Amino acid sequence: MERTSLELNLPDTHEEGKLYVVDSLNNLNKLNVCPAESQRSLDQEDNTGDTGKRMAGSNAGNQRLFFITFALTLTVSLVLVSFVIFLIFQTRNEVDQISSRLLSEKKNIEELKKLNNIILKHLNQSRIKE
């Protein structure tokens, strides 16, 4: 009437062996039937131990990568905006210089016109005298 622990475990081990074989056959069938992407998702559903830790690590890594990329993008944007502002001020200074030159040239042209008129008047008066 007494059974040893080995005899008690034998039927359980046999049942577990059957389950293992069936599970292996199911996995083989999944490999043959499902595409690679679907198989990965199925494998992820099957593996619950390490997957949670890997996903958490992957998620943290993705967040770090996102923040690094975000910081680099902000830095590059700040540099570009600063450069554009610098160019705007430089252009403004150049335009101011050109406009001041044009104003001085306009004054010079008006002075030359006055001198021309004076010369013409003088010449007209000298012709009249002759």
From TrEMBL:
Against InterPro entries, the record matches this protein to: DUF4577
Q: Which UniProt keywords apply?
A: Membrane, Transmembrane, Transmembrane helix
Q: Which chain positions lie within coiled-coil regions?
A: none
Q: Which residues cross the membrane?
A: 65-89
Q: Name one Pfam family in it.
A: DUF4577
Q: Does the keyword Cell inner membrane apply?
A: no
Residue ranges for the region (Disordered) are 37-56
Keyword Membrane recorded: yes
Q: What is this protein called?
A: LSME1 protein
**What organism is the protein native to?**
Emberiza fucata
Q: Which gene encodes it?
A: Lsmem1
